[in-house]
Amino acid sequence: MTVHLVALKCLQCEYPLPAEPDEVVCACPQCGRTARLEAEGLVAQPVTWAEPRAGATPARWLPFWALPGRVVITSRETQGFRPTLPGMQAADPLWQQATRLWVPAFGLSLDLAKNWGVSLTRAQPALRPGPAPPDVPLRGCVVALEDARKLAEFVVLSIEAERPDMLSSIAFTLPDGTPELWVLPSDGNQLVIA
Ligand SMILES: [Zn+2]
After folding, report:
1. 19 found inside a domain
2. Other residues' Cβ atoms within 10 Å of the Cβ of residue 163
3. What does the pLDDT look like over 161-179, one tens digit per residue?
4. Which alpha helices (DSSP H) does the chain contain, by range?
5. Distance between Cα 177 and ligand 1 center (Å)
6. 50-74 pLDDT, tens digit each
7. Which end of the chain is more exposed for a tag (fewer CB within 10 A), N or C?
8. Inside any domain, residue 123
């Protein structure tokens, strides 16, 4: 077994980073630069804070991965359930419009993470980047990008499995844009985004 120790120092100013165990993205307390922890070390990871809905008072800020681009369905087979009905043997039309595939970056059970991912991906919220709120540290980002991609595949599968045509097999590619990390405001129960 090889133990790989990585010095967590800011990429910009070399200030020691206060990452908690399990956290995979953290912000420098001195200069604010954000970075992602990978097996080979720290890499720059921009973080975007979303503008809250007008009038909302965020109680919590939750990190999410967004994979920008298109999900491309390369093959899709069904069990032929009532195949004559129009529109029954098609992938979800969502994939023609969706510009981001969403998954939570904070710790959740697999089931809950899938539910959040499915509902945000279906909603395709039009987010506006806003200023980072004062005195709110970036915390709780524990889902590594590699795991986020697996979770994203799970989100696509779940949405397709909900189609009425009894999916039997599917192949697709995930969006190929540079992964984004968004921090979204919540009132404690639900997201308060535009
Ligand atoms: Zn720094």
Report:
1. no
2. 17
3. 998 888 889 999 999 999 9
4. 94-97, 110-123, 145-161
5. 26
6. 999 999 999 999 999 999 999 999 9
7. N
8. yes
H/E element holding 26? Answer: strand 25-27
147 Cα to the center of ligand 1, angstroms: 26
Tokens representing 154 are: 């799970």
Residues spanned by the domain of 175: 46-186
Does 99 fall in a domain? Answer: yes
Amino acid identity, position 182: W
Q: How far apart are CA 48 and CA 40, in angstroms?
A: 24
Q: Other CB atoms closer than 10 Å to residue 73's CB: what's the count?
A: 16
Ligand 1 centre distance from Cα of residue 18 (Å): 11
Our count of domains for the chain comes to 1
CA–centroid distance, residue 15 to ligand 1 (Å)? 5
- 192/186 Cα distance (integer angstroms): 5
- What is the CB neighbour count within 10 angstroms for residue 39? 8
Q: What's at 187, amino acid-wise?
A: D
Is the Cα dihedral 9, 12, 13, 18 positive or negative?
A: negative
Please tell me the distance from the alpha carbon of residue 135 to that of residue 132, in angstroms, as a whole number: 9
